[in-house]
Amino acid sequence: MNQLSSNQIDQQLIQATLDGNSEVFGQLICKYQNRLYNGLVQMLRSESDAEDVVQEAFILAYTKLSSFQGNSAFFTWLYRIGYNVAITKLRRRKPTVSLENRDDATQFQLPGNTPLPDAELERQEQTEQLMEALDRLSEEHRSILVLREMEEMDYDAISEILDLPIGTVRSRLHRARSHLKQQLELIMDS
Fold first, then answer.
1. What's the domain count of the chain?
2. Dmax over Cα atoms in the chain, in whole Å?
3. C-alpha separations of 110 from 94, 107, 114 in Å
4. Residues 84 and 153 in one domain
5. Are residues 76 and 43 in the same domain?
6. How far is CA 108 from CA 85, 166, 184, in A?
7. Is the same domain home to 10 and 88?
């Protein structure tokens, strides 16, 4: 029994199509449409665009089938057609700008680079809430937080200033942060 290779079957289907049996081309479509589609989805990053390109590629392949010389596999030739259509589609896409993911070059700025009034008010409100929460802490928790978070001192310096062992600085700082968080939550909930 003589088994034909995939390329030989493709050649027979192509020849039958060229001889006037256009329905045979449908077998080539069934054989390669999913493979072509999957490759184009990766390229275009859009399922609907990939569907359009696959359809256009098969139409072009059908109309230009007589130019297929058989120097490569049919799928290679077909994929090249799909690739060219996809490149054209990508070039025609209008660039889009996301207002959420813009870089500094595309940000809208008010004259004088002043912060937006709402942002300034929000920052001021957050600062007031933080100060109120700090005021509610014990002196030992407030002082250790100020030294570490506001003055940006390292543990050794804090240990020396407060005359505490480093382990005590770390544990007190942890408790102070926890208490500050609780106080901020209470303030924001009220």
1. 2
2. 97
3. 27, 10, 6
4. no
5. yes
6. 36, 47, 32
7. yes
- Cα separation, 153 vs 146, in Å, equals 9
Q: Is residue 104 part of a domain?
A: no
What SS3 state is found at 35?
Answer: helix
Model pTM above 0.90: no
Question: Which structural domain range is residue 88 located in?
Answer: 6-92
The radius of gyration computed from the CA coordinates of the chain, to the nearest angstrom, equals: 34
Q: Do residue 14 and residue 52 come from a single domain?
A: yes
- Which residue, among 141, 140, 171, 167, has the nearest Cα to 156 in the 3D structure? 167
> What is the tens place of the pLDDT at every residue in 11-56?
999 999 999 999 999 999 999 999 999 888 877 778 999 999 999 9
Distances (CA, A) of 93 to 44, 59, 88, 96: 11, 22, 9, 9
Find, among 7, 21, 91, 97, the residue nearest to 49 by Cα. 91
Q: Which two tokens stand for residue 107?
A: 């940000």
